[in-house]
Amino acid sequence: MEKSNIREPKQKRSIEKKNKIIEAGYLLFCEKGFYNTNTVEIAEKAGISVGTVYSYFEDKKAIFLEVLKYYSEKILMPMYAEFETLSMPLDLHEIISKIIEISVQTHMFSEAAHEEMLAMSHSDKDVKKLTHDFEEQVVLKFAEILCELGINIQNVNEKIHIIYNAVEFYSHEAAFHKHNFINYDVMREEIIKMIIKMISDRGY
Amino acid sequence: MEKSNIREPKQKRSIEKKNKIIEAGYLLFCEKGFYNTNTVEIAEKAGISVGTVYSYFEDKKAIFLEVLKYYSEKILMPMYAEFETLSMPLDLHEIISKIIEISVQTHMFSEAAHEEMLAMSHSDKDVKKLTHDFEEQVVLKFAEILCELGINIQNVNEKIHIIYNAVEFYSHEAAFHKHNFINYDVMREEIIKMIIKMISDRGY
Amino acid sequence: MEKSNIREPKQKRSIEKKNKIIEAGYLLFCEKGFYNTNTVEIAEKAGISVGTVYSYFEDKKAIFLEVLKYYSEKILMPMYAEFETLSMPLDLHEIISKIIEISVQTHMFSEAAHEEMLAMSHSDKDVKKLTHDFEEQVVLKFAEILCELGINIQNVNEKIHIIYNAVEFYSHEAAFHKHNFINYDVMREEIIKMIIKMISDRGY
Amino acid sequence: MEKSNIREPKQKRSIEKKNKIIEAGYLLFCEKGFYNTNTVEIAEKAGISVGTVYSYFEDKKAIFLEVLKYYSEKILMPMYAEFETLSMPLDLHEIISKIIEISVQTHMFSEAAHEEMLAMSHSDKDVKKLTHDFEEQVVLKFAEILCELGINIQNVNEKIHIIYNAVEFYSHEAAFHKHNFINYDVMREEIIKMIIKMISDRGY
DNA sequence: GATGAATGAGGATTCATTCAT
DNA sequence: GATGAATGAATCCTCATTCAT
Q: Are C34 and C133 part of one and the same domain?
């Protein structure tokens, strides 16, 4: 087996540098997409040389993969945090409202990342796997959270997956008020209504 | 103003040729994505020369734009057709089931196109506009259809947009049974249930 | 299987162009070695663009491989030709003298090619195979020629291989009078003497 | 004059370190060739840092040059040693056999070094000079040895050069039994026969 | 109108060498 | 003295686009 020449940063300075590359990649991929961003630009934006980029990452795609992980966490962290603060009795409408709000905020900060991720996830095996695993992880995590809250739902995985997608969708739309024929406050209320109904539905 | 050298095909043979390029582009973009498909391949698959491709299209992106339109119609046509055959009294569950079935079929044939489209739609202004307009058109069209069927719904645009997204999402997932922890028959029923509730909801 | 994009030239102009690339590669590889010659230089020397070079050759190494074949023939052709003119009775000393003369001439024209070939033949599998096969072909060809001349020699393959090497060696040395402590006329006579003895030796 | 920053090691530890670099370079150049070995690898194999390598050697080529000297001695030492043990009367066949055996052994250990050396020796002036001088030294040394043994040969330099080359050639071939159509035991006997005849020939 | 060979700018990646710590 | 992270010039190769035939 070939010995990898990629540095695994342990030192604080190294970790910072690697993070700078990821941050630079994130911004550029979002702004211009993967294929329209070149490695020199990433290096420049990170304030280092191309050579250094390549001492932290195998190749350009490896940067993209790490950017994806970074982006994923950026989205989920604040949501998970929100659930830590819950206290009984639950006000479903308020909780869901907050989650959606968080999601919208995140999307405002990273509109493009999501689409870029989706795009690469079909033409690239590795990206496909990463996004696939991420979705799975998120759905199962939320199912677990609901379970811990004592909320028992029939077909929980399927429902959460649907809900997760709806929230994603709304956030993406609302973040930029894409369509004029849509009132985004109304839309949010419709989605919240839908979610509450789904969660409350214990079958017939 | 710059004189355009792009031919607007009037002759039958010319139109056929242009369509062959679009079809070839569609297949290749779906299979490998925009950036991993080159113009020589498109020409070869269309059975003509690169030079000829450039007499019908300004550049590679122009092909993509036309492919997008072609793809959009491919998705919508069979759905619209379905609505032509409706007769009273409406069996909502059956109608929605059929629509979803059509959507899934379409996705099985063009998994990648959708994602590729999304991807380009953020890094490219022209693509962004096209997809934006397409969504708008579809939502308004369905709202109109419902109206013609005598179904009056509060917040109809918002609801249809949500529903449209849910169907898209389900089709995409189901077409390839992406996740093992999801039972796609169960998921479909949940989505149908959700849609019926949304449509039936006339406010309080 | 991947369809190769390498053009197989049939047209006269194409063949000429491919030959120009080979000739350019030959001159440059000889002058500066494989690793110190870049693809742009080859293209420039051939009077075409880099892109065109890559439409005739898979990669830089493929050029080298063809250069090798070209070089091999350049060496052998005039030798084979010499044997066509032989008439009885054979004057061994004269024949061998002539062969050596031809070999020296060739080496004067391509000193470096030989060494470069040897060098690459150990670090590169494909080059190794090519040179290996070439040697084999040459030895067997000469064995055949001797046989046709009615000259029967014990251990013919082994002897010819030894002789072939000695001639190569001498040519390489003599072409540039490398060493001052060597008298190359004397050396040639010693080699001819050796060859004659070897050929004349029918065992004990 | 430019002040050289290259350290001339006097301390035992320093000399050991320099030798480690040479040994590492030798192994790597043999295995992968000059251009496919990088300085980091050499440093790693030598168990030191790149920076340190550059405090002992001006540049990469300087390492190669020293490796060449090291390699040369590795080949010659055991041969010279063999001659120390000779006693009268000489059994030529046995002596030559032994020399060839030693040469084959050396080649089995350093197949590639020889070719790599040849390769560089044409594209690089310094390497050319080194190999040239080495050959000269060897031939003159053997001439001297023969002289000391009381063996007087006409055209001694030329003959030894021819013989030296034949032994080199045989060793290289035999070490790896390159060709199937050659019987290497037979070939060795032919070469020994040739050498004996050459040495025994005192002119007419 | 059609062809497809030719172009060459652009991009990913490597690696000899330096120099701050 | 030693280190090894950082540099960035240099190289191979691709491909959208043009244009002579």
A: no
